[in-house]
Structure formats: structure tokens, C-alpha cells
Design goal:
The chain is of the alpha/beta class. It has two domains: 5-72 and 136-282, Rossmann fold (3-Layer(aba) Sandwich); 74-125. 34% of the residues lie in helices and 22% in strands. The chain has eight helices and 13 strands. The relative contact order is 0.18. The mean pLDDT is 93.
């Protein structure tokens, strides 16, 4: 397998912004995307929708959000909160304290319970079922519960869908490779995409196929290595990579390849704050 670093060489743009928390879950994209997007489709939520909150705040309340994730729901968050509260009063926790008394442990476990409660309360406030709708479904290349296909995702959007009006965020743990062919069928509708690609050490081929096909309609404007994964052996390419693609029609036609080093100060932050970010150099 030949890994060509030029495949991830971004073009230079002057309107990059960071949306979402300054760790795993945040993404860098272009302001021009916010100006044109009326619908944000986000595949993969987990317990963090800071990107979606920032996107709506920056783009304006008229933006509608459609989120998909089979692994979470309001009920799941409620059960997680109750479970953490019950643990505070459990025999297991009491024995831990007897063996090794620690105020730090109490604060830590109590903090977990508070965090779970905050998530449970915040989820329905953001995904209100009106202009911000959540579906407890995964997205793949087959329709088999709990999964639906990407064309079904697009059918769930308000129609008619205007050209260059939908932004797509994808973080679905390898399933991105199953849907990318379908995604490109809807290129005219998209302002752009923020995608986290996983396991590039074994899936570089499908990644390369998608990136080469995407060049027809999109420009690579930003990349960021996820520092949880390290590098593809023998290369300077990260195993997990966050990629921002913007529709050509929204950008100037005279763009030039970026020259310099990533991460970009004030824009890029390590996914794992406890480790140094992954350096990338483009000549």
C-alpha cells in the first residue's frame, strides 16, 4: 500500500474558524460555509454537540439541525445519570473509600454524576424536536435496524433542498467508508463536509478513492491529525484524520496549496489534551 501525503495537502484559505470544544469533537471549517448553509446534517453525536451548538450560533437560528446516532438518546443519558448517582451510595464505592480514603476520589465520582446530569438535561434542550431533530439511528450502506442509508437521511430533510445549502459532519467510527459513495451523489446540495476518517493504516485505499473523487466538486481546506491514533507506520500521515472539504463554488478560483506547518495556532487543538498535537508539514 503506497501512502501519498500529497493527498491530504490542503489549499490556503483566509476564513478558517474553529467550532466546538477545544478537544475531540471540535472542527475547523470556513466562514463562507456558515453564510450559505441552511441545514446541518450531523452523523455521530455521542455526548458532545458543542460543534452543532457553535454552528447554529454562528450561522444564525434559521439553520436546522438533523442529528443521527444509534448509541445515544435522552433515555440513555437519563439511565447513565441515575447509574452514576446510585454508584455514590453503593457498597462498591464505600469499600473503595474504606480501602483508600480520598477526597479526590469523592470529588471525581461526584463530578461524573454531575456531568451525566448536565448531559441528560442539555440534550433535549438542544435537540428540541422542532428546528433541531435527533434520530436514534446509525447511518450505513444498508437499511437494517438500527441503521438507515444516506439517501434516506437526505429524504428526511425538508424538500426541496436548495443547491449548496447542506453541511455534513461525519464521525461514525469506520462507517464513513460505507457511505461516501452515496454522499458524493448529493454534491450539488452540499456546502461542504467535516469528516473524521479512522484506521487509515488499513483503509487508505477507500480513503484515497473518496478524496480523488471529491476533487471534482470540493476543495480540501483543512486537515487535522487525531493524536489518539499516532501515525501510519513508516509515514508522517496520521492514522485518524479530520478533513474539511468545501464546495468549489463557495471559494475563490485562484487558491494555492498551503505551505507551512499544522497545527494552526488558535484553530487546532489536540483531541487528547493530555498529549501533544500531531505535527504536519506541507511544502
Amino acid at each position: 500500500m503506497r501512502v501519498d501525503p500529497e493527498l491530504i495537502h490542503p489549499y490556503k484559505t483566509d476564513d478558517l474558524i474553529h467550532l466546538g470544544q477545544q478537544c475531540d469533537g471540535g472542527y475547523v471549517l470556513n466562514r463562507c460555509v456558515l453564510e450559505h448553509t441552511r441545514i446541518l446534517v450531523t452523523l455521530g453525536i455521542n455526548a458532545d454537540w458543542s460543534f452543532e451548538e457553535d454552528f447554529v450560533r454562528r450561522a444564525g437560528e434559521g439553520v436546522r439541525v438533523f442529528g443521527y446516532d444509534f448509541s445515544v438518546s435522552e433515555e440513555i443519558f437519563r439511565k447513565e445519570w441515575i447509574s452514576r448517582v446510585l454508584y455514590l451510595f453503593s457498597l462498591k464505592f464505600l469499600l473503595r473509600l474504606i480501602r483508600k480514603p480520598s477526597r479526590r476520589l469523592i470529588r471525581e465520582v461526584y463530578g461524573y454524576a454531575r456531568s451525566a446530569r448536565k448531559t441528560y438535561k442539555a440534550f433535549p434542550r438542544f435537540f428540541n424536536g422542532k428546528d433541531r431533530v435527533f434520530f436514534q439511528k446509525g447511518v450505513s450502506n444498508i437499511h437494517k435496524d438500527p441503521f438507515i442509508t444516506f439517501p434516506e437521511v437526505m429524504e428526511n430533510l425538508p424538500h426541496p433542498i436548495s443547491d449548496r445549502s447542506v453541511f455534513l459532519k461525519i464521525d461514525i467510527e469506520q462507517s464513513e467508508y460505507r457511505i461516501l459513495g452515496d454522499v458524493l451523489r448529493y454534491s450539488p446540495s452540499l456546502t461542504g463536509m467535516a469528516i473524521e476518517f479512522h484506521d487509515l493504516d488499513i483503509l487508505w485505499g477507500p480513503f484515497q478513492t473518496f478524496m480523488e473523487a471529491a476533487r471534482k466538486d470540493f476543495v480540501l481546506t483543512h486537515v487535522h491529525g487525531n493524536n489518539y491514533g499516532g501515525f501510519i507506520p513508516g509515514t508522517t500521515v496520521p492514522i485518524a484524520l479530520e478533513v474539511t472539504l468545501v464546495h468549489k463554488s463557495l471559494l475563490p478560483g485562484d487558491l494555492v496549496p498551503f505551505k507551512g506547518e499544522y497545527p494552526l495556532p488558535g484553530l487546532d487543538f489536540p483531541n487528547d489534551p493530555g498529549q501533544a498535537d500531531i505535527p504536519l508539514r506541507f511544502n
